[in-house]
Specification:
Layout lengths: L22 H26 L6 H26 L14 H26 L16 H34 L1 H15 L8 H21 L3 H17 L16 H31 L1
Helix pairs in contact: 1-2, 1-4, 2-4, 3-7, 3-8, 4-5, 4-7, 5-6, 6-7, 6-8
Length: 283
């Protein structure tokens, strides 16, 4: 590593014994884990007859697609690389505070998104037909549990496993941008994904990567990502990663509002990272 690397916050898995994959192998591992999980979920949905567009289908997909994905990643890290799975960012004595900060940041971000949508778009779901179906509290709770499988699994793949491999080889900036670009590329497989949706997913990935580096763990990123995906899913139709607007609704004022909010989130994450760098440099 370079001289400046010693003044940067620690990667989640830095200094952990074991063999770590290089960038090319890390990308391959992430891709294989994702593909296996996605294919398994589609087979299960087809065999079960559950409507994939329903809340039940969404919850089933979250668990069946991402539970095995996390298990595959765990098996690779523990059995092939000889590292504890917790080395991917599941450590840190301040986990509960980080989780609370992540939840709070997501709620503030979603509130800001709704305010921005009202300011930039004349068609933001104020009419009755734009509102999603009502969701019972027990359904909200169950769906939250399924997003607590889906979102942290993505964090483990892209920020816990891939980001350190890219950062160690090419530095922080390249690690953040490349891992976020691959995170966005993975979401192009979502039905109806548009260029605007991919852009927003990239910006979301930048924030999550910077928070991970600032904290040295995944707790804040996992909590934020879970709430960011879950709240729009239970309040309105559409995919959680685009702020609940749906992949086909991201255009004009709606896209402008969403980009603005996610840029502000990325700037706040950059500020958190820079503060961490200053603390490490001063110690």
């Amino acid at each position: 590593m370079t001289e400046t690397a010693r003044s940067e916050p620690r990667s989640p898995d830095r200094d952990t014994p074991g063999r770590r994959a290089g960038p090319a192998l890390a990308v391959l591992v992430v891709a294989v884990c994702l593909v296996v999980g996605q294919l398994l979920a589609r087979v299960v949905l087809r065999l079960s007859g559950v409507d994939g567009d329903s809340l039940a289908g969404l919850g089933l997909f979250n668990v069946v697609a991402f539970g095995p994905t996390a298990a595959l990643l765990a098996a690779w890290v523990v059995l092939r690389e000889g590292r504890p799975f917790a080395a991917l960012g599941l450590r840190g004595a301040d986990r509960y505070r980080r989780i609370a900060v992540g939840v709070g940041t997501a709620l503030v971000g979603l509130l800001a998104l709704n305010v921005a949508l009202s300011a930039f778009s004349s068609d933001t779901g104020t009419s009755g037909e734009a509102a999603g179906p009502s969701v019972a509290p027990w359904q909200m709770a169950l769906l939250l549990l399924t997003f607590a499988v889906q979102a942290p699994t993505e964090e483990l793949l892209f920020r816990g496993y891939l980001l350190p491999a890219l950062r160690e080889r090419w530095g922080v900036a390249a690690g953040v941008l490349l891992s976020s670009a691959l995170f966005a590329a993975a979401h192009t497989a979502n039905p109806g994904a548009t260029a605007g949706y991919v852009l927003l997913t990239f910006l979301l990935g930048v924030s999550l990567a910077l928070w991970t580096l600032a904290d040295g763990n995944l707790w804040r990123a996992c909590a934020f990502h879970t709430v960011w995906n879950w709240a729009p899913a239970v309040l309105s139709p559409g995919d959680g990663d685009d702020g609940g607007q749906g992949t086909t609704a991201l255009e004009g004022g709606t896209l402008t509002a969403a980009v603005l909010v996610l840029v502000l989130l990325a700037l706040s994450a950059l500020w958190a990272y820079r503060r961490s760098v200053q603390r490490v440099s001063a110690s």
